[in-house]
Amino acid sequence: MSATLTQKLTLTKVGYLIVYVADVEKSAAWYKEKLGIPARHVEKGWGELETQGFTLALHGSEKAPAKLPETAPTVVFSVSDVRGAHAALAAAGVKTSELHAVCEFDGKVGVSADFTDLDGNRLSVYGLLAAADWKK
């Protein structure tokens, strides 16, 4: 006998986002050194990073793709100073795209810069600027 669903299912909170990496310890060190994200827990094959709102997990895999397609999901970090974050990434030796506008609303422009981790996982920083402050 199966249970009946009395309430509609609503999934609204993301608990974990898992990215696949070849070497969890090496990747955890990269996230700490380059992005300033400390590890909460690291062991062979699994790591959890100290992020807000959800856990960014590193899952060891020998089958991680050599190059992810442009349409692969992207981990987007919201920042209050997108220009400063972009400059800090460059200073840490992270190769990023140029800042580019991704949306515009209510007199603000959403601006991001894209980059990848050691295994090619797609990452980005995103922040809002006043439209008058954004130079196209």
Short structural summary:
With 136 residues, the protein is an alpha/beta fold. Helix content is 16%, strand content 37%. The chain is globular.
Task: Report the average pLDDT across residues.
Answer: 92
Note the gap between the termini. Answer: 62 Å
What oligomeric state do these chains adopt? Answer: single chain
The CATH architecture of the largest domain can be given as Roll
Number of strands: 8
Numbering strands along the chain, what is their spatial order in the largest sheet?
1-4-3-2
How does this model look, in words?
The chain is α/β, with parallel strands linked by helices and 136 residues long. It has 2 helices and 8 strands; from the N terminus they run E-H-E-E-E-E-H-E-E-E. The protein has a 4-stranded mixed β-sheet with strand order 1-4-3-2, with helices on one face. A 4-stranded mixed β-sheet has the order 5-8-7-6. Strand 7 and strand 8 (122-130) form a beta hairpin. The relative contact order is 0.19. The model has no long low-confidence stretch (mean pLDDT 92).
